[in-house]
């Protein structure tokens, strides 16, 4: 009987502990929901001021976001450029056109290579004759063709980086049929340097504007604290904790950041929608298959998450400063 009683007491204690944990969780959720809807209600009472603040935040978030998207489109556009993206592989003069075609088939199986085209010895001679202006000199060779067959190798987009292109050129040069493989890496290095500088500029601008968002939200929350100073003092007299005082302001900052990010998303979506027809006409005139990449769903979620985090950070800084000042007093 005593053992059964102990077991019953243990089971009852477990249920009480479980029920206590459920009540604590429910109480925590209720407090946070109250703070969330309280902050939302304060914003709804002043819709114009809330809209103006959120619009400023939206513009600040849209600027670096738009620049980053444009840079991403530029990267995709340059990835479609044919100029400078080919490696010219000159075969030895004793290699026939059939040997050149056999080597081309072998190279097409390489993972780094997208396409390989063959310029036969006759085609090379004809092209050189028309472009060089030495047709009479070439006629002196009569039936002899001094020019070798040439393979035009187009690497895959992910390979078109200076270091990887250099390795690919070296690998092609080591083939026994190849006399020399040439590729002008200078233009690619210049392009990468330009893109790197622009990307660094976008990151710096994003950092400055993110700091601006934090300061704007921090100042807005600070004004809200000043307007509710009497309420805060009364809450302190009745034993209100720092967490209780901080919570509604943190949700206010979170909401400001969220609204600003949504506005930024709307600005970018509208801007890219207006650009799309003009870009499509330009692409059609040039016969390219480039498509303007508009802000997507995952990108929008990242923007909203970033804006909300900045809003929360700004509110935390403002409330933390107020609480530290009050503690010093």
How would you describe this protein?
This protein has a 4-stranded antiparallel β-sheet. It has helices spanning 2-45, 47-79, 97-107, 121-132, 135-139, 162-173, 185-227, 229-237, 242-286, 297-328, and strands spanning 87-91, 113-119, 150-155, 178-182. By secondary structure, the protein is of the alpha+beta class. The chain folds into 2 domains: 33-79 and 192-328, no CATH class; 87-183, Alpha-Beta Plaits (2-Layer Sandwich), CATH 3.30.70.3040. It contains 10 helices and 4 strands.
Indicate the proportion of strand residues.
5-15%
Q: Span between N and C termini?
A: 63 Å
Helix content: over 70%
List the uncertain runs. Answer: 80-84
The dominant shape is elongated
Strand order of the main beta sheet, please?
2-3-1-4
- Strands, total number: 4
Give the helix/strand class: alpha+beta
Gyration radius (Cα, Å) is 34 Å
How many distinct helices? 10
**Biggest beta sheet summary:** 4 strands, antiparallel
Tell me the count of domains. Answer: 2
Question: What average pLDDT do the residues reach?
Answer: 76
Order of helices and strands: HHEHEHHEHEHHHH
Give a brief outline of the structure:
This protein has helices spanning 2-45, 47-79, 97-107, 121-132, 135-139, 162-173, 185-227, 229-237, 242-286, 297-328; strands at residues 87-91, 113-119, 150-155, 178-182. The protein has 329 residues and is α+β, with helices and mostly antiparallel strands. The protein has two domains: 33-79 and 192-328, no CATH class; 87-183, 2-Layer Sandwich (Alpha-Beta Plaits).
């Amino acid at each position: 009987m005593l053992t059964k009683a102990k077991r019953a007491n243990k089971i009852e204690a477990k249920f009480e502990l479980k029920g206590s944990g459920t009540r604590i969780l429910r109480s925590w959720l209720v407090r946070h929901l109250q703070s969330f809807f309280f902050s939302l209600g304060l914003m709804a009472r002043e819709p114009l001021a809330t809209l103006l603040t959120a619009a400023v935040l939206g513009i600040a978030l849209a600027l670096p976001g738009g620049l980053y998207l444009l840079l991403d489109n530029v990267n995709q556009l340059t990835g479609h450029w044919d100029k400078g993206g080919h490696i010219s592989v000159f075969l030895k003069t004793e290699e026939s056109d059939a040997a050149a075609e056999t080597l081309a088939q072998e190279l097409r199986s390489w993972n780094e290579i997208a396409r390989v085209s063959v310029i036969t010895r006759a085609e090379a001679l004809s092209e050189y004759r028309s472009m060089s202006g030495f047709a009479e000199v070439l006629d002196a060779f009569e039936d002899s063709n001094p020019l070798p067959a040439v393979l035009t190798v187009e690497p895959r987009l992910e390979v078109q980086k200076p270091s990887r292109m250099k390795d690919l050129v070296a690998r092609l040069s080591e083939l026994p049929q190849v006399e020399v493989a040439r590729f002008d890496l200078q233009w690619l290095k210049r392009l990468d340097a330009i893109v790197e500088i622009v990307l660094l500029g976008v990151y710096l601008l994003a950092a400055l504007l993110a700091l601006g968002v934090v300061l704007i939200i921090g100042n807005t929350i600070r004004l809200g604290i000043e307007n509710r100073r009497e309420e805060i003092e009364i809450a302190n007299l009745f034993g209100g904790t720092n967490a209780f005082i901080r919570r509604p302001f943190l949700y206010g900052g979170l909401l400001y950041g969220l609204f600003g990010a949504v506005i930024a998303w709307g600005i970018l979506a509208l801007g890219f929608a207006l650009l799309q027809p003009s870009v499509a006409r330009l692409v059609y005139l040039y016969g390219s298959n480039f498509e303007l990449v508009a802000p997507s769903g995952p990108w929008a979620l990242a923007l909203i998450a970033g804006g909300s985090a900045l809003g929360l950070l700004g509110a935390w800084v403002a409330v933390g400063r107020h609480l530290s000042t009050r503690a010093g007093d």
